[in-house]
Amino acid sequence: MVEEYGYAGMVSGTRLHPPTRLLGRSRELELITGQLDATLQGLAGFVVLEGEAGVGKSRLLSEASLRAREMNFCVVETRAYELEHARPFGPLVSVIPGAGGMGGFQLQEHVVAHLEESALARPVLLTLDDAHWSDVSTLGALAACVRRLSHLPFLALVAARPLPRPPELDRLTSQADLVAVQPLDEEAVAQMVWNLLGAAPGPTLRKAVEGAAGNPFLIGELVEGLRADGALDVRAGVADTPGPAVPSLRMSVLRRMSMMRPATLDTMRLASVLGSTFTVSDLSAVSRKPVTDLLPCIAEAVRAGVLEERDEELRFRHDLLREALYEDMPLSSRIALHLDCARTLASTGATAERVAPHFSLGATVGDTEAVEWLIRAGDEASPRDPSAALQLYERARDLLRHDDPSRVGLSVKWSTPCTGSGAPTRSCRWLPRRSRQRARTKNASWLPPSLLHC
């Protein structure tokens, strides 16, 4: 028997709510349930769900959390976001009580101690979605939890894409039980189309759906897009398109969203620049519109299943929705919008960790304001995560002109973060060759040895 698939889509402005069961995921659910049962018996576990965007990893995490709660687990759910990868411990600070204001080793110890205390009382399930966007500190804390809570009923369940992802995640994954979340098979795809349309797919529709390569999110978007456009003909229990022309999957996603009012679509494009998650006040600032003018657009986007609420923030329901909007804009427009977002957020008093990523994506060589914000964000990150700080400093270096004398001072100031990140000689590349030669000739004592002798 094939289970139903939990797809949330939109038809004529009405959102479809996901069924209670998953489609074609018997193998994955059996493995997850087995891990939960083992944890309930006192055994620790670490599982990584790996698969492409839209294949159903997040839905499996949600199902695991639901089952864990029914088994009286303490469930801690969190996720990483693309534009927050330079925010040390970002996914953990938001879900671990008392973590605010801490950093570095102290915060890592607090996370481990909190989960240990919880696991002594009852089994614990920690889920981390979109781990490929995680910062190095979060991955380090997760590794510490897995290592030091191995004697307790603690299960870490992580979801990630195969690519792109940091090498630290690859090393962490090597310690886990890897579950490859595969595309849906032909039977499951046919059942999904039946669930959505109440009819079996005809030859042309079947061929179009095959282009989604078993990806349930893309299948749902394609089918619902065709139905919303009136491009499906259902007769005698078979649904098909009257002609051979079927839109591409990306165009199908965009066409479905184009059903929203132009003002809403423009607002969502701008929101896609802010990232996967954002606040209404930030959107108001960068759009130069009062919140009252944005509320109808936000409400329409929520009804359409494009946005959903996340505590006091909004987020795109799926990364593929945001990516479709974002990549539909020309590269030059995206760069300009990131730069405008950076300057606008800076003017509103936003923190450096929120402003710097936009300067990183939008600034060009010689932008001293961007350099200052990146350095400020690096200074704030350095005590908590030297690796994240180094990335910010290197981006600041890239925005300095090659003959800018401040490159030397930048190299000296951040030789310590380089050492703390495990790369003590990386900062020597920041110095022009002549500066290094001149420093060695004059035996410059003001340079750290790691720079003087590299």
Summarize the structure.
The chain has helices at residues 26-40, 57-70, 90-93, 104-121, 136-148, 167-173, 186-197, 203-210, 216-228, 249-257, 262-274, 280-287, 291-303, 319-327, 331-347, 352-362, 368-381, 386-399, 406-413, 415-420, 433-441, 449-452, and strands at 10-11, 14-15, 45-50, 74-79, 124-129, 154-160, 177-180, 200-201, 233-235, 238-240, 277-278, 307-310, 313-316. With 454 residues, it is an alpha/beta fold.
Oligomeric category: single chain
Protein structure class:
alpha/beta
Fraction of residues in helices?
A: 40-55%
The overall pLDDT average reads 83
Strand tally is 13
The N- to C-terminal Cα distance equals 65 Å
- Helix count equals 22
Gyration radius from CA atoms, angstroms = 25 Å
Strand order of the biggest β-sheet: 4-5-6-3-7
Question: Beta-sheet strand percentage?
Answer: 5-15%
Topology:
Elements: E1 10-11, E2 14-15, H1 26-40, E3 45-50, H2 57-70, E4 74-79, H3 90-93, H4 104-121, E5 124-129, H5 136-148, E6 154-160, H6 167-173, E7 177-180, H7 186-197, E8 200-201, H8 203-210, H9 216-228, E9 233-235, E10 238-240, H10 249-257, H11 262-274, E11 277-278, H12 280-287, H13 291-303, E12 307-310, E13 313-316, H14 319-327, H15 331-347, H16 352-362, H17 368-381, H18 386-399, H19 406-413, H20 415-420, H21 433-441, H22 449-452
Helix pairs in contact: 1-2, 4-5, 7-9, 9-10, 11-12, 11-13, 11-14, 15-16, 16-17, 17-18
